[in-house]
Amino acid sequence: MTVDWSISFDEKIMPKDLPNAATVEDYIKFHKTSVKGYREFWAKLAGELDWFRKWDKVLDDSNPPFYKWFAGGELNASYLCLDRHVKTERKNKVAIIWEGEPMENGKPKEVRKLTYSDLYREVNRVAYMLKNKYGVGKGDVVGIYLPMIPELPIFMLAAARLGAMFCVVFSGFSADAIAERMNDAEAKILITADGAWRGGKVLDLKSIVDQALEKTKTVKSVVVVNRTNNKVSMKGGRDGTFEELMKGIPANAHVEPERVKSESPLYVLYTSGTTGKPKGQVHDVGGYMTLLHATMKWVFDIKDQDVYWCMADIGWVTGHSYIVFGPLMEGATEVMYEGLPVFPEQNRWASIIERYGVNIFYTSPTAIRGWIKGGEQWVKMHDTSTVRLMHSVGEPINPEAFRWLFKHVGRETVPFGSTWWMTETGGIMISHTPGLMMVPMKAGTNGLPIPGIDAEVVDESGKPQKASERGFLVIRNPWPGMPLTIFKDPDRYKEVYFSKFPNAFYAGDYAVRDPDGYFWVLGRADEVIKVAGHRLGTYELESALMQHKSVAESAVVGVPDDIKGEIPVAFVILRQGFKPSEELKAELKDTVRKAVGPVASLKDVIFVSKLPKTRSAKIMRRVVKAVAIGKPPGDTTTLDDEASVEEVKSAYAQLSGELEKGRKKP
Ligand code: WT7
């Protein structure tokens, strides 16, 4: 946890002319009722979706913590996102405005606009192809390693249509990361592209996939979408180009959406945790879609005439929920942008807002901090006054970042919140709800839990923490959208989330509740590092380092970074026969990048001869981190290790001494 900025609990900012303005008291009163009768409350929202068959039971809680929402109900996520709309006047409404990264003469070179009918046709054709050429159906997993191009949501929706699960791997991940995920998910087919545009360069996705597939067992076929005209090698019998595969598939091909059970899996998405390999979070259909429906209305206040833009990558959960399933289910018009928001210049993102008249904007603290650094002149070049509502996600938002965007895009009048949630929760849990009731804002807060969500901050013993004191964030009641399990590892699911505190989901975050009841999530309480809002487990980075022949032991910790929030630093003990050097440092950094992917760039490698350990031989991460930051560890926080204050102090002194020595002789 690295948050170290001054926040004010007393500040109250009210957006102007908001019909849903409410007092905190009113909201809390309403919230209490929603939580008390949470089953009926969620059932009412679920009733607003189109079901093929209504559920038998709102919540099957016979085997906690494995809950089944709307058990016995049948529906299809692709049907909700497409078929429903093409039957109405929305059929010719633009669903996705896609903008490619390359520019020409000051304009985006490629813009694709897909109406709901276009999307419906494409998803049906792709589903037809997957079913007839590869036999994809219920029980299969479709792996997807694609950049931000329309084919990404199309393949996700096509898999969902067939009742198959999909597993998307972020296109910034390495071959090893793909292989690990494909093996665990037992994917039988992998969809990729010849390349991806990123910051003006072409990333060679196909050769990364080729390397990954040397280490996978289950993947028998690869579909390659042409994006960059990159020359790639195709393996006979395994690889096919998307173009070829789609030739001859009729324009009006129709695939009946599979009737899937509410409690059956929609997808598996891997996240980093404290220890061990990434965890495959499995999300259901009925509960998940219900939560997205509710949050699209309450949090984003989505209306038919709006243009909505979520800046995330679909490779992360934010994109799954709030680019693909949420907005499309609501029949929204949304922007999907392929590349870097600051390419070729700092103003790209603002030019996109202006070009399409974006009304609802979902962004991140890392992005905002980058723009602040670039200077406000870039945003002033554009008319962003169409924006009427904004939210941020991924990590705590520092008050400066909040104020900057609120001023330069929000005109100090629009609702602007920081939505707290995580891959596990499926959708937003703690947030302002301008579409329902808008309570005053405070720079840096997450606000109050959304209706139906019983969140709390507890102390080490699980009792509610006093106001203004730091504790652990938990969620008490089951909620629609919660994971079904960790893929193939139900015990681990129980252990990681439901063993620390009885009868509560443990989020792994530190948080404070202020005297008004607002939540302020401060950061991870475990060994997860948030780099630019992306979750990296220290274990993954340490295992990557171990791949290098010189490394005997290592500890990776996150240190604060002005732009990215946090950035990893490695402490490394070398094996006999290896000497610290700048070259070795560079090599180790490279090893990590190659093993995990470009998302994992070490800021620094510090060579030491010893790492501080507790009596049970656990690395004292708090001490390592304190040394990395250059600040002694506090006396009061003994939450995360078993060492005494004295031991911590002496370990700190020793490790900082080594660091000093190391700095003197480069
Ligand atoms: C972790 C989950 C949710 C989609 C993106 C991240 C941190 C997320 C906030 C926020 C403070 C936040 C937490 C959480 N986090 N949003 N608004 N304020 N912290 O999903 O990769 O699963 O990461 O992100 O630490 O536990 P994720």
Could you characterize the architecture of this molecule?
It contains 19 helices and 32 strands. The protein is of the alpha/beta class. Helix 3 runs parallel beside helix 10 and helix 12 (365-374) crosses helix 14 (399-408). The structure holds 5'-O-[(S)-butoxy(hydroxy)phosphoryl]adenosine. 5'-O-[(S)-butoxy(hydroxy)phosphoryl]adenosine binds next to helix 10, strand 26 and strand 27. The site of 5'-O-[(S)-butoxy(hydroxy)phosphoryl]adenosine has 23 residues, from helix 10, strand 26 and strand 27.
Can I get a quick summary?
With 666 residues, the chain is an alpha/beta fold.
Blueprint (SSEs and pairs):
Elements: H1 24-36, H2 38-46, E1 57-60, E2 68-71, E3 74-75, H3 77-86, E4 94-99, E5 103-104, E6 107-108, E7 111-115, H4 116-134, E8 141-145, H5 151-161, E9 165-168, H6 175-185, E10 189-193, E11 196-198, E12 201-203, H7 205-213, E13 221-225, E14 239-241, H8 242-246, E15 260-261, E16 265-271, E17 279-284, H9 286-298, E18 307-310, H10 317-329, E19 333-337, H11 348-356, E20 360-363, H12 365-374, H13 377-380, E21 389-392, H14 399-408, E22 416-418, E23 455-458, E24 471-475, E25 485-486, H15 490-498, E26 505-513, E27 519-524, E28 528-531, E29 534-537, H16 538-546, E30 551-561, E31 565-574, H17 582-596, E32 604-607, H18 621-629, H19 645-664
Parallel strand pairs: 4-19, 8-9, 8-10, 10-13, 13-14, 18-19, 18-20, 20-21, 21-22, 31-32
Antiparallel strand pairs: 1-2, 3-15, 4-7, 5-6, 11-12, 16-17, 17-25, 23-24, 24-26, 26-27, 28-29, 30-31
Helix pairs in contact: 3-4, 3-5, 3-10, 4-5, 6-7, 9-10, 12-14, 16-17, 18-19
This protein binds 5'-O-[(S)-butoxy(hydroxy)phosphoryl]adenosine.
